[in-house]
Write a structure and sequence with these properties.
This protein has about 400 residues and is α/β, with parallel strands linked by helices. The chain contains 15 helices and 9 strands. A 9-stranded parallel beta sheet has the order 1-2-3-4-5-6-7-8-9. The relative contact order is 0.04.
Length: about 400
């Protein structure tokens, strides 16, 4: 009995020990697993910290490298820019020297050309005084003195010139062939100051005009070509070579805008009186007048149907607007209110205003002109159907003015 009970107790002890061993083993396994997992977790955390630190250091290194590269690039660019600035400055100085030399050369060439031209002109006048067209010599001068024994040649040149002024141009041309002394007298300034070719009319051709002006071209101041409608651009081009022109009458000719531009460019600086009535000029000619004729005071564009308000606008914006003394717009049917406003605003010193046979001028247009042109002394408004008593009342405010109307 006793042995059975001890056997049972031993068996129970063995079972208890097995359970204890199993619990101990499980506990130890868990312990080992926990330690191992903790170690792995710590390892991973350390590794991640190392990677973050390495990434931070790499970022710092990249930024440092970028900054270093920027500094190096900027330093190179600064050096290049400094060198470029020095080269640009040197090039600019060289260009200034070249340009200055070029300007000096142009000025010298212009001066030399002017000096040569002045010398030729002086020699030309000296030859005219000697009565020869080419290079004169002693024999020619002695022959001239021998020929100048007629009563006309023995007179003072001023008196002889007054005698020849009574002759026409054709007669003077014939007289110039008589002898050298007569030729010298006929080529004097007094005889060619005023040239009137209107009696020839349509018979005057380009060749005849050129032959006439060849003799007295340097002396012509007043030139009348009224009615010479056979002239072409060739003849008008020779007129442009008369550098001392002050008074020109182109009325009833084949005048064009291009001719006015050539005349203005060549001899317009001295022009005071210009008559272009009954021609085919347009607003372009008036624009050329503004550019090349700064001293013009008298302008006649009557019956020029191509002249419009735009042309008067050109005149009002030019340098000569304040110098105008007389303007004739008679028969200019394309000039309207805006054109008359330009006259009133820009021509304060206007003395004479002619606007006959104009169906566009009315009371308002006349008022615009009179309001700005307070120095008017002569006004002609014949055959203007739109004017009434109201318009003529404004004329009463002009002191000492002469008015012609019907």
């Amino acid at each position: 009995m006793k042995s059975n009970s001890s056997f049972v107790s031993e068996k129970l002890d063995k079972q208890a020990m097995a359970e204890l061993y199993l619990k101990a083993c499980n506990h130890y396994s868990k312990r080992i697993l926990k330690i191992t997992f903790g170690a792995i977790k710590d390892f991973i955390q350390v590794k991640r910290d190392l990677e973050r630190e390495e990434a931070r250091k790499m970022l710092i290194a990249v930024n440092f490298n970028h900054t270093l590269m920027c500094r190096m690039t900027f330093k190179k660019w600064k050096t290049w820019a400094r060198q470029r600035s020095v080269k640009t400055k040197d090039a600019t100085e060289k260009m200034k020297i070249v340009f200055a030399n070029y300007v000096q050369q142009v000025i010298f060439d212009s001066w030399y050309a002017s000096a040569v031209e002045a010398k030729k002109t002086r020699e030309y006048f000296e030859r005219l005084e000697r009565g020869v067209q080419g290079e004169g010599d002693t024999d020619d001068q002695e022959q001239m003195h021998e020929e100048g024994n007629d009563p006309v040649s023995l007179l003072p040149i001023e008196v002889s010139a007054q005698i020849f002024t009574k002759l026409s141009l054709a007669e003077m041309a014939k007289c110039s062939l008589v002898c050298r002394s007569w030729k010298v007298i006929i080529q004097s300034n007094a005889l060619w100051n005023k040239v009137d070719l209107s009696p020839f009319g349509s018979k005057l051709k380009d060749n005849s005009l050129i032959n006439i002006l060849t003799v007295g071209r340097p002396f012509v101041v007043h030139l009348n070509l009224q009615g010479c409608n056979s002239l072409t651009s060739t003849g008008f081009g020779y007129v442009a070579q008369c550098r001392n022109l002050q008074d020109v009458n182109f009325s009833y000719t084949t005048l064009t805008d291009e001719v006015i531009e050539d005349v203005g460019f060549s001899s317009g600086s001295q022009m005071l009186y210009l008559n272009m009535s009954n021609t085919q000029i347009s607003d372009k000619a008036l624009r050329s007048i503004c550019s090349f004729m700064p001293h013009l005071q008298y302008l006649n564009v009557s019956c020029c149907q191509l002249v419009t308000d735009k042309g008067l606008y050109y005149l009002s914006k030019g340098r000569l607007a304040s110098q105008f003394r007389h303007i004739d717009l008679s028969g200019c049917l394309n000039v309207n209110l805006n054109g008359f406003k330009c006259i009133g605003k820009a021509f304060p010193n206007l003395r004479s205003f002619y606007c006959n046979n104009n169906r566009n001028i009315d009371n308002q247009s006349l008022e615009c002109v009179l309001k700005g042109c307070r120095k008017l002394r002569s006004v002609s408004l014949k055959s203007c159907p739109l004017l009434s008593d109201e318009g003529f009342i404004h004329l009463a405010g002009l002191p000492q003015s002469h008015v012609a109307s019907n």
